[in-house]
C-alpha cells in the first residue's frame, strides 16, 4: 500500500536545524536508536565496498645516504584493497549534524617499490625492485552529515570528514628487501598522507551520490491507476537524542480529485509497545481516508451481487410474503443487488480498534427476461470495526459487523418496512459482505521497501487517530550491488 521509499534515506540519516512552519504532515517515520545503529552499519558496509580497491598516488624520492650517495626510491601502484572496520563505530545524532565515527580500522595496502643508486663503492648504477604489503592500524574516520529539506526532497551533504592514520607496518618482499627495509620511512609519510586525503575525498564523493539518490526519489508514488501517495517531505528532519524523525505529506491524491487537506500533525511516540524497534511508521487516519476518497471519486467502489450462499434469497418467490408486490409484478424472477457507495467510507482509529462506516446504496434489480429492472433502493449504513495485523512485508486487516441501519430511498414496488428485511440483510452482511471485505483485506497490502531492505517482525499499534507500524529492518548488500550507492 505505502511504499517505504524513504527507508534507505531514513537509515542514512543526518542532521540539521529544527524545523517548524508548515503543518501538513500526515505520515511520520522515525528511525530509533536501534535503527540508527543499523543505518550506520549499512552505511559503513557500503562505504567499505565502494572504497576498495582505492588507488593512491605513487611517489618518487631522492634520498642522500652517507657512503651510498644519492638513492632514488619509488613506490607505485599503491592500492588499498581491504578495509576492516570492526565493531568500534558509533553514530551520534546532534543539533548540527549526524556524526558517524569509526575507530580501530585496519587496512591492507599493496604496492610496488624500486630503488636505484650510484655510489663510489660501486661505480655502476644499481637497481632493485619488489612488492610490499602494508598494514594500516588504528585508523579513525569521522563524518558529519547533514540532511535538510530542499523543496520537499531530502538533501544530504557530508559537511565534514576526517581520517587519521595511527600506524603503518610496511613489509617489503622481493629484491634484496632485507637490505632496503631501512628506507621505508621514505614511503611511510607519503602513504599515511595519501590515505588521510583519499578516504575523506572518496567518502564525500559517495555522499554526493547518495544525495542525488535522495533528491531523485519520486514525489509521488502510484498506488494503482487512480491513486498516488504524496511523498513530499515536510520540514527538516527532527532530531532526538537517539532518533531522527521525518515527516511526509502522505495523503493519497489523484489527478482527478484533490483531497481535503486536514491540518494535523502525527504525534509520534517512540514507545513501540515497549519493544525496541528500528523503524516506526505513523499514519494519520486521514491517509487511509484520503485513499478511500480518491477511489470513491474515481467511481471504483461498485459491487454487483448475483450469488449468495442461500441462492433462493435472490429470487422473487422468496419475497412473496414480505414484499408481495415484488412477487406479483415479477413472479419467480432472479434478482441482483447492485451496491455502490453513497459517500466515501470513513475510517476512525482509536486506541482500541479501527472503525469504518460504510454508507452504501443497495439497488434491488429484477432480471425480467433479458431486461434488468431496478425496483427499489435501500440505503444501508454499516458500522464495522476491525484490527490490523502484520506479517512479513504485508499488512492485513480483518473486520466484523457492529451494527447497521436501513432506509428505503425509493421503490417501484410500494413501501415496505425495513424491519421486515432487517434479518435477511443481517445474514447477507455477515455471510456475503464481511467475508468479501475480509478476503480483500486478507490478501494484505505489501509494504514495498527500497531494494535490498526487508521489514522484519512488523507489528501494528493503534492510538487516537493514528496507526503505527513498528519494524526491524534487514539488509542484503548483494541485492543492492546494482544500485552502487556510495
Ligand atoms: C597493481 O597492483 C595490483 C594489485 O596488487 C596488481 O593486480 C596489478 O597487476 C598491479 N599493476 C601494475 C601495473 O603493476
Ligand atoms: C574504540 O574507540 C575508542 C575511541 O577511539 C577507543 O578509546 C577504544 O579503545 C576502542 N575500543 C576498541 C575495542 O577498539
Ligand atoms: C591484511 O594484513 C594482515 C596482516 O598482514 C593479514 O593478516 C590479513 O590477512 C590481510 N588481509 C587481507 C584481506 O589480505
Ligand atoms: C520545487 O518542487 C516543485 C515540485 O516538484 C517544482 O515544481 C519546483 O520547480 C521546485 N522548485 C525549486 C526552486 O526547485
Ligand atoms: C537529550 O539529552 C539531554 C542531555 O542528556 C537531556 O537533558 C534531554 O532531556 C534529552 N532529550 C530527550 C528528548 O530525551
Ligand atoms: C503534496 O504535498 C505537498 C506538501 O504538503 C503539497 O504542497 C503538494 O501540493 C501535494 N501534492 C499534491 C499532488 O497534492
Ligand atoms: C449498477 O448501478 C450503476 C449505477 O449506480 C449502473 O451504472 C450499472 O449499470 C448497474 N449495474 C447493474 C448490473 O445493474
Ligand atoms: C451503531 O451503534 C453506534 C453506537 O450505538 C452508533 O453510534 C452508530 O450510529 C450505529 N451505526 C449505525 C449504522 O446505526
Ligand atoms: C541476497 O540477495 C542475493 C541477490 O539478490 C540473493 O541471491 C541472496 O539469496 C540474498 N540473501 C538473502 C539472505 O536473502
TrEMBL record:
It holds the Pfam family LBP_BPI_CETP_C. The keyword Glycoprotein applies. Keywords: Glycoprotein, Signal. One of its GO terms (molecular function) is lipid binding. InterPro entries: Bactericidal_perm-incr_a/b_dom, BPI/LBP, BPI/LBP_pln, Lipid-bd_serum_glycop_C, Lipid-bd_serum_glycop_N. Residues 1-21 form the signal peptide. This is Lipid-binding serum glycoprotein C-terminal domain-containing protein. The lineage of its organism: Eukaryota, Viridiplantae, Streptophyta, Embryophyta, Tracheophyta.
Amino acid at each position: 500500500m505505502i511504499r517505504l521509499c524513504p527507508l534507505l534515506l531514513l537509515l542514512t540519516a543526518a542532521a540539521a536545524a529544527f524545523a517548524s512552519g508548515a503543518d501538513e504532515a500526515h505520515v511520520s517515520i522515525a528511525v530509533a536508536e536501534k535503527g540508527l545503529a543499523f543505518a550506520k552499519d549499512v552505511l559503513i558496509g557500503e562505504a567499505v565496498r565502494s572504497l576498495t580497491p582505492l588507488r593512491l598516488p605513487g611517489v618518487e624520492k631522492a634520498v642522500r645516504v652517507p657512503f651510498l650517495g644519492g638513492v632514488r626510491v619509488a613506490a607505485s601502484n599503491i592500492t588499498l584493497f581491504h578495509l576492516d572496520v570492526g565493531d568500534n563505530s558509533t553514530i551520534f545524532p546532534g543539533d548540527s549534524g549526524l556524526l558517524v565515527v569509526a575507530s580501530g580500522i585496519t587496512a591492507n595496502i599493496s604496492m610496488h617499490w624500486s630503488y636505484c643508486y650510484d655510489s663510489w663503492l660501486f661505480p655502476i648504477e644499481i637497481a632493485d625492485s619488489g612488492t610490499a604489503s602494508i598494514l594500516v592500524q588504528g585508523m579513525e574516520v569521522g563524518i558529519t552529515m547533514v540532511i535538510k529539506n530542499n523543496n520537499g526532497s531530502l538533501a544530504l551533504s557530508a559537511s565534514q570528514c576526517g581520517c587519521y592514520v595511527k600506524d603503518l607496518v610496511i613489509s617489503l618482499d622481493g629484491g634484496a628487501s632485507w637490505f632496503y627495509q631501512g628506507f621505508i620511512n621514505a614511503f611511510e609519510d607519503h602513504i599515511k598522507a595519501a590515505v588521510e586525503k583519499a578516504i575523506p575525498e572518496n567518502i564525500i564523493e559517495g555522499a554526493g551520490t547518495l544525495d542525488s539518490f535522495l533528491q531523485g526519489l519520486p514525489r509521488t508514488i502510484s498506488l494503482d491507476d487512480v491513486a498516488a501517495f504524496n511523498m513530499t517531505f515536510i520540514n527538516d528532519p527532527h532530531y532526538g537524542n537517539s532518533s531522527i524523525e521525518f515527516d511526509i505529506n502522505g495523503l493519497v491524491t489523484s489527478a482527478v480529485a484533490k483531497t481535503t487537506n486536514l491540518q494535523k500533525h502525527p504525534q509520534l511516540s517512540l514507545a513501540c509497545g515497549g519493544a525496541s524497534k528500528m523503524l516506526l511508521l505513523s499514519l494519520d487516519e486521514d491517509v487511509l481516508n484520503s485513499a478511500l476518497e480518491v477511489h470513491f471519486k474515481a467511481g471504483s467502489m461498485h459491487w454487483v451481487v448475483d450469488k449468495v450462499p442461500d441462492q433462493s434469497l435472490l429470487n422473487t418467490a422468496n419475497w412473496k410474503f414480505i414484499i408481495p408486490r415484488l412477487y406479483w409484478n415479477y413472479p419467480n424472477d432472479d434478482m441482483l443487488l447492485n451496491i455502490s457507495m453513497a459517500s466515501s467510507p470513513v475510517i476512525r482509529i482509536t486506541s482500541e480498534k479501527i472503525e469504518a462506516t460504510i454508507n452504501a446504496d443497495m439497488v434491488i434489480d429484477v432480471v425480467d427476461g433479458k431486461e434488468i429492472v431496478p425496483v427499489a433502493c435501500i440505503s444501508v449504513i454499516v458500522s464495522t470495526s476491525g484490527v490490523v495485523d502484520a506479517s512479513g512485508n504485508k499488512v492485513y486487516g480483518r473486520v466484523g459487523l457492529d451494527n447497521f441501519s436501513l432506509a428505503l430511498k425509493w421503490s417501484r414496488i410500494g413501501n415496505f418496512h425495513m424491519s421486515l428485511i432487517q434479518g435477511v440483510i443481517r445474514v447477507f452482511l455477515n455471510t456475503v459482505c464481511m467475508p468479501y471485505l475480509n478476503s480483500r483485506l486478507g490478501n494484505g497490502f505489501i509494504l514495498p521497501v527500497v531494494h535490498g531492505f526487508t521489514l522484519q517482525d512488523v507489528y501494528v499499534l493503534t492510538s487516537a487517530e493514528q496507526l503505527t507500524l513498528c519494524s526491524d529492518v534487514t539488509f542484503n548488500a548483494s541485492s543492492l550491488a546494482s544500485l552502487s550507492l556510495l
